[in-house]
Amino acid sequence: MADLAFAHPDEVERDAIIPRWWRTVDHWTLMSVLCLFALGMILAMAASPPLAAKNGLPAFHYVERQAIFGGAALVVMFLTSMMDPRSVRRWATIGFVFSLAAVILLPVFGTDFGKGATRWYSLGFASVQPSEFLKPAFVVFAAWMLSTIQDPKAPPGRVISFVLAVCIAGMLALQPDFGQAALVMFGWGVMYFAAGAPLILLLAMAGAAVFAGTIAYNNSEHFARRIDGFLSSDVDPTTQLGYAANAIREGGMFGVGVGNGTVKMSLPDAHTDFIIAVAAEEYGMVMVLLIVGLYAAIVLRTILRLTHERDLFVRLACTGLVAVFGVQAMINMGVAVRLLPAKGMTLPFVSYGGSSLIAGGLAVGMILAFSRTRNQTGLIKRPSRGI
What is the pTM of this model? Predict the structure, then answer.
């Protein structure tokens, strides 16, 4: 006991990886993510059988695939959460390079699967959406660049990260994928604000975003159609938004009962973009509030733990990751209740989708790794140097 009490901190840190990880990881965030995945599996069993029947597949085809992809996502999450911040930064930088190259090559080798947006690579047995992996990797890389602001000898991290954010958002908008483009710029803006950006500059960025949206509205039929549908005073009951709104209204407080919902018969994306409508119809507002509470718990717990963090890079990276995670969930649910225009964005850990699940596992793994309790001795909010 005396040897342990007077041991050097580095020696104490050399104990077994899993016990040390369990002592330092945020249990509330971890349990919230596992609950979201469990609810996603329950909702997949409710939402996906009609689609499987329509496509001539076994009833639980999509449920089985979600279990496989979700299991892989959880493995990625656990392994990533055991890394130290420096290792996360190294792997995120490598991942950023590869995922950026994959997004750049989408117009040449990608496919749209008949949806009018070239966002995927078809592998035959599955598809990959590189922008899902680009988001968390870019956030960590941009946080590293922004954390160099205190070092006068470092490269201009603010300029480099901003130029990359604009270029990535531009490429995503050309697919077109305006939702992911907005998330990239939002994540960078949150980190820039946390790094001490002046408010006037953030207001200027907001004005630039409005200007870019106006240009997109005037030049993209895809974008204009979604904005017009959102602004219209009447909702066509035969559209996805119409079906979703009716399902939420019919569900009431406690739902119509498990298996008694009808929206899954009409919505082609009931198991992905509009999974919350299935939850609201069959399980009622109680289920929706539970899901919202779990997302809120993840965001608030992470921010609370960051208040004790001294490393600037860790604070910026974790803030950006949890902000993008929370806002993506908010956008998905906001679209379903018609508070936001349709975006085609999944609900993290709940919606069906291989790329979305695995990339979500990677992002949450990074959040857990950055928010772990660490020895802060010697850390005086200094910038991080070197990969």
Answer: 0.88
